[in-house]
Design goal:
By secondary structure, the chain is an all-alpha fold. It has a domain of about 80 residues. The protein is built from four helices and no strands. It starts with a helix and ends with a helix. The model has no long low-confidence stretch (mean pLDDT about 80).
């Protein structure tokens, strides 16, 4: 379309010159814009206050909202149900690791306690204790013999207590 307009201006100038009419030097202003469509129409917008308007209740919309809420609730429950096994696996992994750490701690504690027990029950330690106590034998009332039945030990202890009371 632009080429036709240019051709039209060129041809129009030639025809006017050839016709012998007097022409002025036509210099079209290339910076002018052509008119915008419907620019002469004036739009008036009036402020409308709809504050007092009350929307009419639509039962179809209410039903659709109920279905939407129930569907989203069911999908959320389904999502949680699908995620529970993986969450349980993760939590059990944390619990397993904490139990391993506790097992390592208790193993080291058992090792230190068994070392202390060996030191206490060693013959050298018993010999040191006997030298400190000057080879004093324990009081016969404090000795409990663990031979025989369980009831016999309790009876001996009761018998020893009666002798001490006399």
């Amino acid at each position: 379309m632009a080429t036709l307009a240019i051709l039209n201006t060129l041809i129009a100038n030639r025809t006017l010159v050839s016709a012998g009419e007097q022409t002025t030097n036509y210099d079209p202003d290339h910076y002018l814009l052509r008119p915008i469509a419907s620019e002469d129409i004036f739009y008036y917008s009036k402020y409308i206050d709809n504050a007092r308007m009350v929307r009419k209740a639509d039962p179809k919309v209410r039903r659709a909202q109920g279905w939407m809420i129930s569907a989203s609730l069911c999908s959320a429950i389904l999502l949680v149900a699908l995620m529970l096994p993986s969450l349980y696996t993760a939590f059990s992994g944390y619990q397993l690791e904490s139990l391993r750490q506790e097992n390592a701690r208790l193993s080291s504690e058992i090792a230190t306690l068994s070392l202390q027990e060996e030191k206490i029950l060693s013959p050298q330690h018993i010999e040191e204790l006997s030298h400190k106590q000057a080879y004093i034998d324990p009081d016969p009332a404090n000795i409990v013999y663990l031979e025989g039945k369980r009831d016999a030990v309790a009876k001996r202890m009761a018998f020893n207590l009666k002798e001490q009371a006399r």
